[in-house]
Amino acid sequence: MKEFLQQIWWNNTAQMYAIVLGEIILAWIFFRLFRKIIFSFLKKLATRTASDIDDAIVAGSEKFVIPFLYILVNYAIIQQLALTEHAERVLKVAVAVIVTYFIVRFINYVMHLAITLYMRRKNEPDARIRNLNGVLLVVKVMVWVTGILMLVDNLGYDITTIITGLGIGGIAIALAAQNILTDLFSYFVIFFDKPFEIGDSIAVNSIAGTVEHIGIKTSHIRSVTGEQLIMPNTELVKSTIKNYKRLERRGVTFKINVQYDTPVEKLNEIPRLLQQIVQGNSQATLDRCHLIGFGDYGLTFETLYFIDSADYKTYMNIQQKILLDIMQLFKEKNIGFAFPGQGLVLQNIVQSSTSSSTK
C-alpha cells in the first residue's frame, strides 16, 4: 500500500491525489452541513421579521455566495498539485469562467432585488413591478456583455478589436432595427413617465379600451367592443392619451338654442331655471350658466356643471335626467327651442386634476 501511494502519476504521487480528493470531499461535506444547518437557522430568523430584505439576503447568499466560495476553496485545494502548464491554463480558464458567471448573476440579482424592493416600498402595483422585467432585461444583457469582455481581457486577449467590431456591428444593427429601438425607447417612456398602467381605461385617438399588457414593443388594449388591439408603443407615445381611471370628476357643458322671439323676461329667467335643474341633482355641481351669443338658429345659452364621480354610467344617467327636466320645464314655461332637433347641442368635457396625456 505504501508503495502504491508513492507511485508518481503526472508529476504527483498517488498519496497527494488522495489528500486532494479527501480535502475536496471534506470541503463538500462542510459546505453541505453549513448550508443545511446555518442557512436553515437564518431562514427561520428571516421569516420572523416583517422586512423582505433579510429574506432576500439569505436567499442570495445561499444561491450565489456559497457556491462561489466552494469553487474558490476547491481551486485552492487543487493548486497543491504539481500541474502541467496546459492543465494549469485549463484550470484557470475554467475557474475564471465560473467565477465570472457567478459574479454577473449576483450583480443582476442584487440590482433586480434593490429595484423591486424600492418599488414595493413606493407602493407600486404588482403589474407595474412585473413590467420591470422588460427594463431590466436590457440592463442585464449589458451587464453580461461587460462581464464577458472583462473575462476575455483577464484571459490575456486583446479586446480592442472585439469592442471595435461590436461598435461597427452595433451601428449596423441599430440602422437595421430603428423601429424596434424606437419602440424600446417608447417603452422606457411609458414605464418611467407612467401615462397609463395595466388595468387603466384609456382612449387614444378613436380607440378606447382597457390596458391588458405593456410589452417592450407593443401594448395590448381590450376595446369596449371586445376585441384585443395590439398597438406599437411608439404610436401610443406620439398620441394624446386620455386616462379615464385617473378621472376625479367629470365636467359637462351643454348649449341650448331658444327662439329669437322669446320675451326678454323669460330670457332673464332661463339661467335661473337651468341652475335650478342642475342643482336639483345631489351629485351635480353648477359652475356657470349664461347667454353667450346670437346663434344661426336662435339665442345660445351655455351651462357648465361638474359630476363628482368618475363612473361613466353615473354621468350618463345624470345628464339624461337634466336634459329631460329641461325639456319638461321649458314646455311648462312655454319657452321654445330654436328649430327642434337642432336646438340642443351637447359637448362633453373631461376634467381631472391628475389626468395623464402624452404627446
Shape: elongated
Number of helices: 10
Give the number of DSSP strands. Answer: 11
Could you give the order of strands across the largest sheet? 6-5-4-3-7
Q: What is the N-to-C succession of helices and strands? A: HEEHHHHHHEEEEHEEHEEHE
Biggest sheet layout: 5 strands, antiparallel
Helix content: 55-70%
Strand-residue proportion: 15-25%
Gyration radius, in Å: 36 Å
Mean pLDDT, to the nearest integer, reads: 80
Residue ranges: pLDDT <50 for 5 or more in a row?
341-359
What structural category do the secondary elements indicate? alpha+beta
Distance between the termini: 84 Å
Quickly count the domains: 3
Model description:
The structure is a single chain. The longest helix has 37 residues, at 85-121. The protein is of the alpha+beta class and 359 residues long. Residues 341-359 have low confidence and may be disordered. Helix 3 runs antiparallel to helix 4, helix 4 (85-121) packs antiparallel against helix 5 and helix 9 packs antiparallel against helix 10. It has ten helices and eleven strands. It folds into three domains: 2-174; 190-244, SH3 type barrels (Roll), CATH 2.30.30; 247-351, 2-Layer Sandwich (Alpha-Beta Plaits), CATH 3.30.70.100.
